[in-house]
Amino acid sequence: MLYQDWLPKLAPPALQGTWSGRLIKALGAELDECTDEMIQARKLSMPGTVSTMPAATEALAKIGAERQLERGPTETDAQYGERLRLAWDVFPRMGSHGALLGQLDIAGYDRANLYVIQRSGRRSTRTSLGATTITDGPVWTWSGKPPEAYAEFGLLFVAAQPSITWDSLLGFSAAAAKLNRIVWRWRPAKADFIGTAIIASGATWGWPTTRTWGSFNWGGTGSFIPPR
Amino acid sequence: MALLTFDQLLAGLTQDQIRERLFGRLNSDSFPITDFAPGANGRTFVEMAAAGIADNVAGLVPRIAGGGFVDEADEDWLTLLAQQNYAIDKIGASFTVQTVKLYAALGVGPYTVAAGDLVVQALSGNRYILAQAGTIPIGTGVGPSGVDGTDYKALQFKAESPGAAYADVAGEITTLLTKQLPGVSAINGAPTFSAVGHAGSGTGTLSLGGTPTGPARFTLRITASGQPDVATFEYSQDGAPYIPAGSCASGGVVLPGGTVVAFVAGTANPSFVYLDTYDFSAPGTPIALQGLDEETKEALGARMIARWPSLAEVPTTDIYEQWARLASTQVTKVTVNPNNTAAHPGRTDILIAGLSDLTGIVGTVQAYIDQRAGVTDHPFVAAATVVDIQAAGSVEVNAADLTRIQTEAQLAWQVYVASLLIGGTVRAAKLIQILMDAGAVDYFNVFIGPIGSAIYPDFTVLSTEVMQALAGSSLATQLTWIVL
After folding, report:
1. Which domain does A30 fall in, by range?
2. Which residues in B126-264 belong to E strands, given as ranges?
3. pLDDT tens for residues B436-466?
4. Domain count for chain A
5. A135 & A73 share domain
6. Whether B29 and A26 lie within 8 Å, measured CB to CB
7. Whole-prediction pTM value?
8. Which residue among B159, B170, B244, B253 has the highest number of C-beta atoms inside a 10 angstrom radius?
9. Which one of B31, B47, B310, B314 would you mutate to disrupt binding with A, by most A Cβ within 10 Å of its Cβ?
10. Cβ–Cβ gap A68/B4 under 8 Å
11. ipTM summary value
């Protein structure tokens, strides 16, 4: 029962007159309003409920900062709120191919042309439905380290990525810096992130994995983004 | 009911706003609100109700709203939030423990003392109370440079209050406040060597001896497993590349500078295991345990936030950072980096630092992490090398302010340098700000840098180093003070 209905009944006869009754009713309505505001205040830090409130944008940003899950460029309040609510399910998978690819997908990177490739040749990509496809192939020599140094990996984009750039003088573009930040965060601590290769066009040795030395004419273009 | 914005919920309503809302409700219910006589019942009722609601009901809204967020909750509520939602307790302040050498004048003594009997004071004014019993031997005339138990007795003293300010370095505790032991002197002299930090699975230990000719920090790395005289090792001095040093001799190996390290067999064979490391420095520190201030709201909040990534089922950077901090409250700074080479594939280097040199607790942190790391993971803990930072330059101050400015600036300088991260950058501009904030009139050519090289406007240490304000010295002596 609302205060504005209950208080008038509780009031002594002297406060149940025409004018005094309206005073009591107004007091009850104010208490109802304050009660509702306390409920709103409590819901403010609940990502699944605040996402439908006027406070959603600011509250979700704060919850996202605490849970260290950045908002994607196209995510709605409801989508972001739900993802923050499910952080319990996301963090246990941290360090996996799927979690890393998922974070990059949410951040707006070119999912369809993105691979995570380990030195061992294991590579992964993410489908439009959010599933992770893992395939084993020929080894990828990301750096000059000997085979024993197995714990290295990199990213491969097989299409041009104009926003992801690095220059020895200008440094990283915002998209490249964010990419590196996400990868360093979501990789296992022991995994040595070597960088991001971008094949913009033409033939490049090693991609597709069936393309071997001597099987094509040179002419590929692309770039390499250092890991930091 | 109106849905409020984020800012409205965090700000809450004032008494005036509640009164306006009450009048609005009455007005919409045809209650006359524009012609109240002084002391009218309706007006008085509304004022009373507004005051009561503002104080007891509406005032709770911003506290409830902020209480759900790490950076908005008030301090007491944050402590509760940390306990209940993040399962971590706020770290309370702790006491510094110093090792102080007590020695008697020639022919005087012996004296038996019990905990609480003696109080010593440092140059800073900090006082420490004897925390253990012992016997000060009869004076031999050799004093604190002699042998413990024969020429002096090293006993532990606990700071009289908790906090990080109790950080008096070697040689700064020399005053014995309690006078019941005539002829007895005290000094918190540095031991010849620090405790030996060990990372790895071997059970062998090191016995350190010799007389080092100067300060040095050594890391010994086992290059072939085995018992003493069979295993081999290499060493790194002050972060330099490793140098092969032959067998782990039980009879001792002389390192540069005169340190003699003897390898002692452990309980398992082999005692010394490939790639195990041993760290120590010369001289050591008299601080057996560095006291800490009560954890700040910001630091507690950072630990709470770090709990989320710790849900990962494989060790990530965040997890190793958290484990290192959980292993010891002395650890306040951590870096985690892959060090994946043919010699140690898949290794993860974890560098720790705190308010003092953490070489002595490397083994503790390594053991804690080893109990949690996965099969094929190879976490490797080491202590960041501590680099003393000093200042140079001239400062103009009014005569009446000299002592106060020196004291305030020194404290702020120590706090600033202690806040710098591993591999951080110290800036002279910050020191200048500290001096001017403290009340200096002007400054000239203020620079900072490592000992003997205070010539930089900014100075960045290596990624394996961490800075501290030069121990045993202060801005009062490092800077030239021009009194107006």
Report:
1. 3-87
2. 127-130, 134-136, 153-159, 173-176, 184-187, 197-199, 205-210, 216-224, 232-237, 243-247, 253-254, 259-264
3. 999 999 999 999 998 888 889 999 999 989 9
4. 2
5. no
6. yes
7. 0.73
8. B159
9. B314
10. no
11. 0.81
